[in-house]
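Quick one:
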Amino acid sequence: MITWILVAAALAVLFAILGFTGIAKGFAAIAKVLFYILLVVFIITLIASLVS
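Output:
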């Protein structure tokens, strides 16, 4: 999942440099959503490992 986040962020930067701001905003939003999903899964895993 981290790979997907990095790819989406890199594509957002690339499209922003090339001037495709609409596509860049889309890829940035995808990277942001994937990051929050990763963060939630990490916190749940951390809590589950501390409880057991």
